[in-house]
Every structure is written in C-alpha cells, then in structure tokens.
C-alpha cells in the first residue's frame, strides 16, 4: 500500500510569534518552565509539583558623570578669606560672601534620580558625601572617592564635621553661611529671594523635598522668605549646598543660609522634647529588647511576676516602679544571687496590717526595767548593747552626782 504524502503547512500558514513572546523577561521564562515540568509530573506520577518563581536582582548602577571632564580646569582653590593663616594653612576672615558671587547662578544642579549611583566610596564604610555631586558639578562619576547619593537616617558623622567631611566651627559666621557650628544641632534652613506667587508654599515644598524628608515648612508670603526644617541634620547640610544660588520655578537666585534659634517658646519646647525622644531611642537601641519591654511595661509575664513578687506581703498593694527597681538593685549588689533575689523581694514574715493591729492589742505593755544597782544613768540592757557595739570597752562606773540635786526637766536658763 503506497503511503500518501503528508501535506506540510506553508510558511504563510505558520503563525509568527509576537514581539512580546520572542523576548520575555527572565522571570516569565522561569515561571513557564516550571509549569511545564509540573504538568509532565502530573501525567507521570499523578502528584502535584510546586511552582517556583525565579527572581533576578539588578545590580546598582554606577554614578553618572555630571560634567564633562575635558571642560574642567585644574585651578587652585579660590580665596575664601582675607588673611592667609600659615599656621593652619588656610584662609581666615571673610565672614560675609562677596555680593557679586551671591548674585551669580549656580553652574549646575544635582538630579538625584539620574546622577546617584555607586562609587569607590561605597566600599569604604564611613565615607563622606561628595560636595560637587550636591552642586551638580562632579566629573569623576563612579571613580569618585565620595558618596553619590542622599544621606539617610543611618549616616551618622562626628559633630565636628558635616556630611561632606568639612570641619565645623564653634560659632556661626556673621551672615549664617558656611559650614555651620558644632555647638547646636541645626536642621532648619533660611531661604530668601523667593519669587512671590500664589502657590509659593507648594513650590518651596516640592523643590526642597528632593533632598530628604521635611518635618516642617514655614513661608512668609509677603517677604518671599521660607524656613525649611528637615528630619535629619545631614539632609539639611546637603540641601543647603544643593539649593545655594539655585532657582525654583522662576529665574530667581536663592539665598540659602542657616536659620537662627527660633525665639518661640513652643518651638523651643518642641525641640527639647525631640532631643529627649532621640536620647531615649538611643538608649532603647543600646539595651536588650527584653529588658526595655520589662521597664516600659509591655511584657505581660514580667508585669505579672512583678505584681506577685513585689507585693511585700500586703494583699492588693501595687509597688511603684522606683521602689521595685531600687529593691532589685539592692539585692543584686549584695550578691544574693539571681535565684534568691525573687524570694527575698517578698517578705513572708511581715504580717498584714490587720494582723499587726490585732497582735498589738493582745500583747501586754512592756514593764519598764528597774534601774541598775550600780547607780548609773543607763539601764543594764543599754550598757550591754553599747558594750557589744564598742567591743566591751564601755565603763559601768557611776557618774558623779550633780551639786544641784537629781536630774530634772529643763525649763529655762534663768537663775531664778
């Protein structure tokens, strides 16, 4: 029997794959392969197979070069003062910026979304941030020795330097510019020369929010002045250099300085409360979590144990925290041991108040002891107690009798 030829489909009849199907991403390829294997396993063993998804993490991109290196000129640093101090090898004086320089726009501006990336400084812990990256004029890119990103909450530096590694001073400059002072934690910036519009508050908040989380913004609409307070001090330092001589939505040239101390009493109380909370948070991080939970009363087991062991034998008595911790610290200092401390906290031999009152009524009044035969002013029990304390060196010799007769109650110093 002759075999009939099988008709093969023409190339026009074969469906062409779609562009999305020809180049799927890695995640989709991994999911499809595992599903096909699961179906083959169900046909062979009739057992469901687990579906897995492969996730490919992208590596962090390198920092972008903000300025063409061929354009950069290697010149000595500009004169920043009026007198050159040969002892410290730097310029001194010049507490106010030049009026001409303050009216010139900045040569560049940093775009965090495009310019940030990894550099050589990411391999070195504790590296500082790039000052030229903040101003948008860094020409080294990934070869830079400083960080090209925004500061975070975990970026902590010595109070004597700022986030760029520059030394701070004990007092601010006359114009509140420059690096700043290490005597006060300043997170507020003064922004002047703002073009006054109806949406000035929204414009200021939008532009300054690029450099970190803002805690509070206050705008004086009539004067074109704003005060921007950041949550982190390093973000305020970064924003001061990034927005200096920049412009917002118009062609103005901003005047960015450090803000002075707010004279408002409410603001001072708010700042003091924030410092206390920051110190308390630092203490919480340093102590064990279980100990912190016990102190703050968030541990139910510790609270129950404290109520049982800290009653001091009195039913319904809730011991204060200071008394409880003082008693616990006293037992720890005496070296009684951790196992015996809870037992010594409770006083089983101490009677209750009602029992103490009843026993006091039943016990007869003590009979006073007769004076000693030797004629002294102390009783025999008192002399025995003194001898025990002094090691037996107390004399029991009778005191000389006064010339005016026996001891009487003192009423006055008058002779009559």
From TrEMBL:
Residues 1-78, 393-416 are annotated as: Disordered. Residues 187-261 form the RRM domain. This is Pre-mRNA-splicing factor CWC2. Keywords: Cell cycle, Metal-binding, mRNA processing, mRNA splicing, Nucleus, RNA-binding, Spliceosome, Zinc, Zinc-finger. Its main location: nucleus. Residues 50-63 have a biased composition (Basic residues). GO terms for biological process: mRNA processing; RNA splicing. The lineage of its organism: Eukaryota, Fungi, Dikarya, Ascomycota, Pezizomycotina. GO terms for cellular component: Prp19 complex; U2-type catalytic step 1 spliceosome; U2-type catalytic step 2 spliceosome. It comes from Penicillium alfredii. GO terms for molecular function: pre-mRNA binding; U6 snRNA binding; zinc ion binding. Residues 125-151 form the C3H1-type domain. A zinc finger (C3H1-type) spans 125-151.
